[in-house]
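Postdoc handover notes: sequence design on the structure in folder B. Input tokens:
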């Protein structure tokens, strides 16, 4: 009697990797670009206990319909903000990034005005970690972080700085309304270099992504035009990168 073939295994009968979402949250504070870190729980069964890490955690299949939903939930748990500028950065996975098993993480980065943030300490069940704290980005790049979060942070910073050269992204770091000098300073902090003032002003006004919103005190107490963003869901694209301070707008970088 011929041997009957065994039934094919069900599609889900295989080891599954751990799936997480991590969020690199940037803000502008004390005239520097800062990133939010959380301290890992202090427990014997927790990897990287008490080390600093990016906010994140496991996908909750009961509540997260998409990866974006998970990122928004993690960000809301730590900052109290529901609708920031949020963009997916990429995915990282290996058998060694998490000692608990084969792990894949999907990383997002967010831009948030500092004054709008309400940091959570992790006391709630959803937070799952200890104290949250802002760190200067440059200092953080020289600090050992849990898992492969140093790699995620470096990738997010590189993506942000590359996109700032030709988009209005830094505007999402500012409280509204804001002035053009404040916006230029934000661009310069993120890029870590000065920008030509006249070329910057023309680029911003020609971009038509802002609308006037009264006046605010400017330099030496003089009133300055204030602006708000027309659309907080996406950044405006510019045709060329920005000119450095002192460059000839006609022939230098950004011309």
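Designed sequence:
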């Amino acid at each position: 009697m011929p041997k009957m073939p065994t039934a094919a295994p069900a599609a889900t009968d295989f080891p599954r990797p751990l799936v997480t979402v991590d969020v690199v949250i940037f803000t502008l504070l004390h005239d520097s670009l800062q990133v939010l870190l959380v301290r890992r729980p202090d427990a014997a069964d927790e990897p990287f206990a008490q080390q600093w890490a990016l906010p994140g955690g496991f996908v909750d299949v009961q509540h997260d319909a998409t990866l974006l939903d998970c990122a928004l939930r993690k960000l809301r748990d730590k900052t109290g903000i529901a609708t920031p500028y949020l963009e997916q950065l990429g995915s990282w996975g290996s058998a060694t990034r998490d000692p608990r098993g084969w792990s894949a993480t999907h990383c997002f980065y967010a831009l948030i005005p500092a004054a709008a943030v309400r940091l959570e300490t992790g006391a709630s069940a959803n937070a799952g970690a200890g104290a949250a704290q802002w760190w200067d980005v440059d200092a953080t790049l020289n600090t050992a972080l849990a898992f492969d979060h140093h790699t995620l942070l470096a990738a997010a910073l590189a993506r942000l700085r590359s996109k700032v050269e030709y988009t209005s992204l830094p505007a999402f770091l500012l409280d509204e309304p804001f002035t053009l000098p404040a916006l230029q300073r934000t661009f310069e902090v993120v890029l870590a270099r000065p920008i030509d003032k006249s070329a910057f002003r023309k680029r911003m006004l020609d971009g038509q992504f802002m609308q006037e919103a009264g006046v605010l005190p400017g330099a030496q107490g003089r009133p300055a035009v204030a602006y708000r963003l027309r659309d907080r869901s996406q950044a405006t694209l510019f045709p060329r990168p920005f000119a450095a301070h002192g460059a000839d707008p006609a022939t230098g970088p950004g011309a």
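Context for whoever picks this up: The first strand starts at residue 18 and ends at 29. Don't rerun without checking with the PI first.
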